[in-house]
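writing this on my phone so excuse typos. first protein, seq and then structure
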Amino acid sequence: MTQPLNIVIPGGSGQIGTILARHLAGQGHHVSVLTRHKHAAPWQVIVWNGTNLGDWVGALDGADILINLSGRSVNCRYTEKSRAEIKESRTVSTQLLGRALNQLAHPPRLWMNASTATIYRHALDRPMDEASGEIGGEECDVPSTWRFSIDVATSWEQSFFAANIPNVRKVALRSAMIMSPDRGGVFDQLLRLVKWRLGGAAGSGEQFVSWIHDSDFLRSIDYLIAHEELEGAINLAAPNPIPNREFMQALRRAAGVAAGIPSSRLMLEVGAWLLRTETELILKSRRVIPYRLLQSGFVFQFPDWAGAARDLVLRYRARRSQ
């Protein structure tokens, strides 16, 4: 890093936003997080509501980078109310940021906007990359909740790319599940299942799991900042997605747990109903490949799940023993 950057992160108070803000602030950058609720943090915290212009716009004027992570959690039941909140929290906030940037004399030169690897179709047959991957939504015999998620993803990206701001490089971050040892994240939940001996295959176990180690996620953000030739949609996922059965087996091995009870589709439906979530998060096959990152020369520290799982388990245990 030649000089500190001024970086603004709307939605930066969530689990992933906190990891990213911590990383960027640790590098010496000036980080401002836009959030709906004021809270103490080692970086600047600015209140916004994600729907209206306000004083927060001043934080963007002269900033170097905007990384928008705003969006209601999808870990819920897809009721009519929650569907509207999930979609609007993404599209409306993205449209608002586009309006704000168009008013500025000196907008950020780079705007990265969260997206999701869920945008691709349920894929058992072949990998999905940015060049040849098929956007989902038209498949036969898939649940309406899966079509809803793809509608959210495509509407989100349309809102992002529709914003026409001259001289601003735009990158849509089609991220897979980000695996981190922090409390409350996906890895934390999966490891708890393994500890409770419930970490067997989910459903058929044949559906692919796409993921990215938190270290590689953060390194890929750094890489995208540095490589000005990269723009458009970028897949943030490890290059080797694997079937759920192998994924859970490798996690059990890393955790030192001999066996895990498998979960039938019916069991998952009942469990999802009790936990107020959706089985799509587990049963949809996400077979995503980071073609553009690999083609440009990015090297993953954790390309394979077995090594990533061992590292995450060690860090998870180390943090809880402190």
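second protein below, same order as before
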Amino acid sequence: MPESSQVPGAGRRPGYSYRLALLGLVASGLIVIAAFALPWASASVPLVSGLSGSLTEITFAGRELFALAAAMGWVGLAAVAGIFATRGWARVIIGLVVVGAGLVTIGTSIGFGFDPEPALVDALSGRIGGTPEQWSSTPWWLFGLIGGIGLAAVGVLTVARGRTWPGLSRRYERAAKAKTTSPGGPLTSLTAWDALDRGEDPTT
């Protein structure tokens, strides 16, 4: 009796953290992708370099300013497939990659929130006007920060618990064994048709 009471509890805990990690990866990845697709800043630059009388305004989405950090959302979504397809230490590696993706997103978002101007200057280099005469930023970088925190948290969870989670390969093995094991009960019409489809004689 004590053994049977421990098994359900042990099975529920890994399953809960497993589902939490998958949902967290999807949610955090989508938040990062959406955040970097929104306008983070706009700058007014002269149409002609050195001529400040005529200005044009350019708006930048987060992904135009930080292409690498914007790609971290896709890393989070790709990690979902990776967790499905792997087991053991491979999941630890995936977790570390997700932690790194989260830290990149967090650092980029915080850096922009404190000082947006360097990113704008870099984005405007080579364009008309060169440097912005006026600029403004939006608070959408906060959503990038939230998504990055989510990725980092799920990555830590994956590193800590990923080796205990169920894997698709084991499920496929069990399904294959169930299909190849013939039942010892009476022959039914469904099993007879299945045998005929395989080219076997169901009466033998």
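The chain has one domain: 8-167. thats all i got for now
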